[in-house]
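Bump. Still looking for Tripartite tricarboxylate transporter substrate binding protein structure tokens.
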Amino acid sequence: MPSRRALLGGAIAATLAPPAFGQEKWPARPIRMIVPFGAGTSTDIVTRLATPRMSELLGQPIVVENRAGAGGIVGSDVVAKAEPDGYTLCMGSIASHSVNVSLMPSIPYDVLRDFTAISLVTEAPNLLVVSSSVPARTLPEFIEWAKKQRGGVSYASAGNGTSSHLAGELMKMKTGAPLVHVPYRSGAQAVTDVISGQVPMTIYQVTAVLPFVRDGKLKALATTSAKRLEMVPDVPTAIEQGIEDFDVSAWHGLFAPAKLPVERRDRIHAALREALFAPEMKGKLEDQGLLPVAMAPDEFRPWLEQDIAKWREVVRTSGARAD
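Sorry for the wait, here they are.
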């Protein structure tokens, strides 16, 4: 039997030894949340709405850091190469963690290999809108009208490789409508030219086009979400109007470096979920055209794989390239 002195020495050694990585108190210091886009973008806004409550629940400050560049690649790469300890997170998007995989095949990280997918955070549905001069009141009527136009029908987007561009290409693939892409430097410029009638159609964020729909300058023919939106309950989805699987909402997702311990992943997800569904958050998110999701990690990973595959096919078929 070990002596009392040996037992005491072992106890002291155990006390002084550093705790195992997965057993140490976490979080014990501030968490860095990298937003791979600039201040004021939708990714930045949803991050700054969710992190104060997440910080309270986790018991440590969450410091938001904007690291914009290369369509979200610069900041995302920082997280991909960070330690998987839960102290460095990334609020990614459909661009940085889905579309770019196909548009920019030389990106320095592999989304599915180099990240822990924690949660689909929010979705940002779009509206398919047309100029008030277009003689169509429904999506099928618009497609029928477009097929009769010599030279096709132009649609405006926020730029090459953006979700509004690829949504138009997916519509073209699924309907056979002769849609011709016209890229703009910004979504605001694209919407302005649709209002003026220079371009007949665009697919863009609900909050950006809804004021013009309400005052009659644009006609909303469809939402691009899987279900009707509370903000525009009278506008049917594209799916309702016969376009199968046309769910092309932009989205935001929470990521960590690969190999994040499951316990920490789940604590982060639980804090995120409570923050997103706090009573005061609903109106704040809706003002930005965002719908809270907080998808569970085990669901988010396969969902992400499907989203990447969908846009890979759209990019391959359309030949889309980023600016």
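The chain is about 40% helix and 20% strand.

Edit: fixed formatting.
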